[in-house]
Amino acid sequence: xxxxxxxxxVKIHRSTRQRRFGVxxxxxxxxxxxxxxxxxxxxxxxxxxxxxxAIAEAMSKAGGYGKVLSVKPHQSSKNTPGFRIRILxxxxxxxxxxxxxxx
Length: 103
Description:
Blueprint: H1 16-38, H2 48-61, E1 67-75, E2 81-89, E3 92-99
Antiparallel strand pairs: 1-2, 2-3
């Protein structure tokens, strides 16, 4: 009779050193991402009036009607602060970059 070979898969355990490195790497990446999210540029703190004015301007460019999907602070290539506004009109999403008004 032939002996049956074991067909159980062999588990390969990661060493404790590898696990610690992975945990430390994840913690470092998470802390860096968290610190970047905590730093917000001054234009991101734009007043409510600036946001409303930017939305009104984008709505007028879109034809005066539509649904505002998102309003996000945005910095143009010329380092001027503003807002990126996405509006849904006639089944199409249109994106407008509106510079922030200085107060």
